[in-house]
Amino acid sequence: MTAPQNPVRIVLPRGNPGPEPWPEDRSPGGWVSLALFVILCAGLLAWRRGRSHPAVPLPKSTEVEQKNPQDPMLLQAEMIRAALARGFGPEWVAKTTEEIEGALLVDASLSAEHQATLVEILKQADRAKFSGAAVPSDHSGEGGPALSAALDAVAARSTRIGK
Question: What is the C-alpha separation between 149 and 110, in angstroms, rounded?
Fold first, then answer.
């Protein structure tokens, strides 16, 4: 037997030389665009932080503007709303009398007597405020010790929960 005319040449594998190196870019464009991006992000954060709404300050009973100086019912209602907001949270400033009544029924931290006192004064103040009529004289002095006790109970609740 004779050897084939065209012998097959075996080529041995060569080592992988690796990737080609990146061409060196001498322009500062990459660093400048990175710096602009960082400055833009910092400016955006500062702008958003400046636009955030600060907490709504709660009205103090001495700062409440009375619609009718002859009617202390409106002042008492504002005192109640401010006390409820301090005791239960600032979202209580925006609640209607009906929403306050419903939320107080669910919450068990105030007695039923205190809840009834607070809600009744708020309802009478709403009637006086929105009807434009003065509160009858037999209701104008309502509150007194019952109101003070109810406001003290709300204040005690706010100190219990750490507000």
Answer: 11
